[in-house]
């Protein structure tokens, strides 16, 4: 039986909601992630992911796009939700739930980033640790866990996700290099080639590399399925 008592929203605490964005690409054979140096407390001076609060009248996707533009300088990419982080003590200020998102960048998009003095592209090593100039860094909040989980999810779906980290046209060598960078380990070349060619995920373009000293590699593109 429905209660006749009127609903009073003031009886319930209301946690705040944020979005944190893992902007990830491949550079020099390694995964890199966009970091911003936090200017205010808590964790002033620490490196963190681009993030921000969700407005009371703002959809999550709208907030993620806004934060990506304001703090990442990226307009166009659609952030993809990864996980909800809601540990009670994840933020010392108050109860804050974060909806983590990821954005995967092609080499051209990565090269087009304009970084200010408080931003860096940090590398992610095979263990998931974030490094700047070779040194592991302590991130603010629970952002190390966000990066680690995002990398783990990316590894689990790398056969499909790798294409978002590549140009539209690529060689099998390029594709293997991206997968090895994300997985943090080498792959057997013949087995990888067979698996990709048999998977139906890639389609030859009919073009080959030019100006190479060896046999030019064939270009492929991702198969578009109906």
Report on this model:
With 226 residues, the chain is an alpha+beta fold. It folds into two domains: 16-156, Nucleoside Triphosphate Pyrophosphohydrolase, CATH 3.90.79; 159-222, Winged helix-like DNA-binding domain superfamily/Winged helix DNA-binding domain (Arc Repressor Mutant, subunit A), CATH 1.10.10. Helices cover 26% and strands 28% of the residues. It is built from six helices and eleven strands. It has helices at 60-72, 107-111, 143-156, 158-161, 172-183, 189-199; strands at 16-27, 30-37, 47-48, 51-53, 80-85, 96-104, 119-124, 130-132, 135-136, 202-208, 218-222. The strands form two sheets. Strands 1, 2, 3, 4, 5, 6, 7, 8 and 9 form a nine-stranded mixed beta sheet that branches. A two-stranded antiparallel sheet has the order 10-11. Strand 7 (119-124) and strand 8 form a beta hairpin. The chain is elongated, with a radius of gyration of 21 Å. The protein starts with 15 loop residues before the first strand and ends with a strand.
